[in-house]
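REQUEST FORM: STRUCTURE PREDICTION
Request ID: SP-0412
Submitted by: Lab K.M.
Chain count: 1
Length (residues): 291
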Amino acid sequence: MSVLVNKDSKIIVQGFTGSEGSFHAEQMIDYGTNIVGGVTPGKGGTEHLGKPVFNTVSEAVEKAGADTSIIFVPPAFAADAIMEAADAGIKVIIAITEGIPVKDMIKASDYIKGKDCRLIGPNCPGVITPEEAKVGIMPGFVFKKGKVGIVSKSGTLTYEAADQVVKEGYGITTAIGIGGDPIIGTTTKDAVEMLVGDSETECVVMIGEIGGQLEAEAAKWYKENGSKKPVIGFIAGETAPAGRTMGHAGAIVGGSEDTAQAKKKILKDSGIHVVDSPAEIGKKVAEVLSK
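STATUS: Completed
RESULT:
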């Protein structure tokens, strides 16, 4: 079993022929990801990177059987691309695009609620099930197959955590980068729930940051559901000044519960193993799994 993507996923790239889409699609194909084509309006019927190009997502679903999409469409058009994918019957939509206007995401988020799909992102590094499918922009060589799931708001900290886990002799089932924008499709709680429910995942690393309530919601779910699977938590942004956006648009301390200290306390009170530095993630995973 795997979460979200695997070797059988049929993946298309929206914004396939653009520079970002081309670069990362090539990397994904080299990794062995099952890319079945891409979408660039007006270029349907041509080939790119040895894969067919379609004018619309519905055409890609009909002709290539696509069930997963990764979006590299510019910010002004990315919300439309998300809604188009949902309309066409794509089950997993992974939006990499950074800088989508909040008002556009409010509309897209509301629009896809009634659809049978899951949105990851936007402004995220994507999802990887090591040695099966890399649907994102992460460096594939860092990830090795194993039994630790990763959920993270930060791209670079996802890679850092994976590297540490692998160096400790463990690997990754699936790593999910949920994105750092104020409005995202899949929350920390959603992702933790998926990984805790995955039969191959024995431990979950949850990387959060200041701002918002996502980590607190995940911790509350974890506490209430009495999971037997250990979760290791890290909150980035301990030294960030209050009231100022730091890096991610969603990382801004609004209330007292948004601070790193408050979040760490909530996590600890919920039975999550909290580390104070990202450098401790791998060691804590090894310690917990060797018990």
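NOTES: The longest helix spans residues 75-88.
Reviewed by: T.R.
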